[in-house]
Amino acid sequence: MAMLGQELGICFGFIALCLLSMGIYAFVWKLGQRRSERKEQLRKQHLTESGLGSGGGVGGDKSKAVEAGGNERGLNQQEEV
Question: Chain-centre distance of CA 50, in angstroms?
Fold first, then answer.
């Protein structure tokens, strides 16, 4: 019976160690994601300030291109029918 108690102790100890390591990994992962998000926000802010990040892009606001004489796709070509 002593062997069974020792084996159960090892089994539950291993499970506890796995849960603890998963918790630590999740905490470190979240810290990395926050850091990455801050860097991305700073990058976007610098692009916007320099005039490169106008907020348009794929699926973005196409009114600037239409006002500039282009079509809805932002091209200065005639669309083929």
Answer: 23
> Could you tell me if 33 and 27 are in contact, meaning their C-beta atoms sit under 8 angstroms apart?
no
CA atoms within 13 A on the CB side of 62: 10
Neighbours of 65 (CB within 10 A): 17
- What is the CB-side half-sphere exposure of residue 79 using CA atoms within 13 A? 7
Would you state the pLDDT for residue 50? 86
Q: In angstroms, rounded to a whole number, what is the distance separating the alpha carbons of residues 64 and 70?
A: 9
pLDDT for res 77: 56
